[in-house]
Amino acid sequence: MKSEQELLQAINGGNRAAMRELYDRYSGYAMAVGLRYMADADAVKDVLQDSFVKIFTGIGAFEYRGEGSLKAWVLRVVANESLTQLRRYHHFAVTDEMPDMPDENVPDTEDVPLSVIMQMIERLPVGYRTVFNLFVFEQKSHKEIALLLGIKENSSASQYFRAKNMLAKMIEEYKITTKI
């Protein structure tokens, strides 16, 4: 397996096999990122197709910064393309309401499999899921999220806290039904 730098050099040299290797190496991770934002697998496939077109047409401008930077860039392109698709096809609820104060008792997720938690995140309403992913996984501030989505900062905070509370309820229900 080539290092990222070797792979990048081969792609920039026009090597189609290297392009395929990049796709094979990172498409699973890219799919996981897409699924965090889009609940529909067909929509994620469209996002991945558009993302890899952008990746391969823009890879010449990519600035290599060490092992892992190529993967991070690929996943950032997928996240951005997911957001573009969400903005294009979904309208986010805009509210000036300040969010309710979050519950202090955060459920223990230690015994809940990660795959189950990811499925719960997928079940969140689009706006909740998008803001939750941006805040938790992409580590964006509510100000940055508001700019990305064209909503108010208070709306971002509200969506996040509502998503967090909804997830807490789902986790508690899961623990009750599975008797954890």
TrEMBL record:
Residues 22-88 form the RNA polymerase sigma-70 region domain. Keywords: Sigma factor, Transcription, Transcription regulation. Signal peptide: none annotated. The keyword Transcription regulation applies. It comes from the Bacteria. Pfam families: Sigma70_r2 (PF04542), Sigma70_r4_2 (PF08281). GO terms for molecular function: DNA binding; sigma factor activity. One of its GO terms (biological process) is DNA-templated transcription initiation. Residues 117-166 form the RNA polymerase sigma factor 70 region 4 type domain. NCBIfam families: sigma70-ECF (TIGR02937). Belongs to the sigma-70 factor family. ECF subfamily. This is Sigma-70 region 2. The lineage of its organism: Bacteria, Pseudomonadati, Bacteroidota, Bacteroidia, Bacteroidales.
